[in-house]
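Exercise 7.
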Amino acid sequence: MEMRLAAVLVILLCVSPLFGLYSTPDPDQLLIEQLAKSGGDLSKPHNIVFLLYFPSAEGAAKAAGDVYEKKFDVNVLKPTKAGEPWSCAARKTMVPDLKALQKIRRQFMAIATANGGEYRGWSTESMK
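Solution. The predicted structure, written as tokens, is:
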């Protein structure tokens, strides 16, 4: 009986994300909520900075070109210490809309992955 109960619990824990019983909070939704809590007016445009990190200058430079093609202002920043990653900061002034930010996240994750890096999210001056 105890084995059956344990098996049922394991199955529920494994499949519950598939059926919406458990869901991971959307990172963009959490950041929008944080922006609102910090006093940001979500109906107005904000200067948003999206951050991508790369182990090499080549990866950061290639990603910067890909990001620039998507109509973002881009800066590649050299690491300050040996062993730290190169960063690619993409900036855009926009209203913080969840669907738009989710689309950007998908695009930047693909760009980062294709160039050996990672996308780490976004922030605004209002959130600091």
